[in-house]
Protein 1
Amino acid sequence: MKAYSLDFRQKIIDTYLEGGISQRQLAERFRVALSFIEKLLKQYR
């Protein structure tokens, strides 16, 4: 499986920071696993 690009990861983070969307909704919107979202945001913090 190919790693996600930094641009894609940043887009997810930016969307989350805009507010009003849960981690589960992010996962559905970007079609990735919830665990990926959780790890990504944990690393960001």
Protein 2
Amino acid sequence: MNKLKGFTLIEVMVALTIIAIALASLIKASGGHTNSAAYLKSKTLAHYVAMNEVTQLQVDKAWPDLGTIRKSTEMAGVEWFWTREIKKTGDVTGNIRGLKFTIFLDEERTRNLAQIQAFISNPTQNILPVAAPVNSGASGATQ
């Protein structure tokens, strides 16, 4: 009588159960990594939007009014909704204002992705006098 060598049905079922559990946990982990990557991409782009708005104020040499405004900007094919708050600071001259940009992914502004706080100075007060070079007389070199 020949004895057949192989696995029993119970051994095969246990092996398949172990493989199914391992594959399910791998799928869950990869899904979590995908969600994290998408969230980090959105957060990074929202930060860029806020920094671009602050930089645009500096480039335009703007002196924005106090208060809050709500606008939107498009970047990377996505419309980003933002709120800009301009407040007074403790500067006694009144030439420095505090900015707070809050970037949202939705128009209702319920999902805050990034927030930037910065300071801007009055561009009309930023004019520095140009110092003339001092001649030494004999050599003609400046000091």
Protein 3
Amino acid sequence: MARPWDGIIPDEEQRAYRAAGFGRPTGLGKKPALLIIDVQYRTVGTQRVPFWEAIKEFPTSCGEIGWNAVDKIALLLAEFRANDWPVLYPHVAPKLNFDTGRLSDKVPAIMNVASRGYDFVEEVAPREGDILLPKKHPSAFFGTPLASYLINLGADTLVVTGCTTSGCVRGSVVDAFAYNFRVLVPQDAVYDRSQISHAVNLFDMAEKYADVMPTADAIAALKNVAAAA
């Protein structure tokens, strides 16, 4: 099966990871929760247009690459809704004057996003009963009550979607792993403005921190969890 990093990570390096014993799948537990990270219009734009068009509206947008992932997230969300499993939305809240810091130093555009950009994308927007988690930093765990909510829910597995693969997704996956959750990353339900960074970070997560697979395979695995329950 072709993986997003094939042709980017040399075969010899992939063999080196295999030889060292990395990359073994951990599988799912019994109580999954879905994280939809930063799927707001500021990361995709309000229209399905290519990247260079999308950034005219929001400089932080990933354009149609993000929209393609939204379509996959919608499929996962439907599976979670059907099974009444928890859905959580870590998201960036509007930036205020006192939010200036290292992120605003690195990415000044983040401080000037129009209010519409902070709205959740309608196709995968939260509904009553979902958990909203405004955050100030990449990891959905840092400075938020996410771990507390997950413990209260009895969740043992996180399905992590959203953006960016190399930033907030990766930061959240590493912290979830550190908290000893099982982690699944549907490779086509996360997105990044850089496809190389997207692929390399998926590879690294697959080797060390998470099970990485296409959304179709993730849904099949989730259906098995539901059937076993």
Protein 4
Amino acid sequence: MSDWQHDKRWSDRFIPEIRGIVARHLILEAPLEEDQQRNTDLIVLRSSAVRIACRVRRAQYAERYGDEFTIRTRRLYGAKTELAKLLEGWGDALFYGFAGDEGITRWLLGDLDVFRHWHAAELQRLPAGCPPGLEQTNGDASSQFMAFKLAWLPHEFTIACSAN
């Protein structure tokens, strides 16, 4: 089994918990008028498909990196990365969490449209060849990623986050 498959299997075990967290912020109780006049008890914030990218890191990194999120920018064999897909317009929201045996301990739900606008503006502002974020290489050198501090992004990026 590849490292990617191992990591995917590990993070996928948190999907039910992520679904619960995301639902609390993207599915709302309808106002009384909606209930009375339009037979509506719950409202999903969008009526079309909402694509949510989910990333889960190990809990041991939450203390050191809890104020940022990362997005893969390069893979060893050239496969299209998360950043490329995101910048093409794929994904509406990002769930980024830290988890361990006790479940998800810290998390962020971010608006990827806000991120895309911010990223495009940063590309215009920064010198040529200097992309937004801090580029890092995985410990096994199989891929690279960009780290983005939450403080760099507009506050509208954060849809919701844990209290941690």
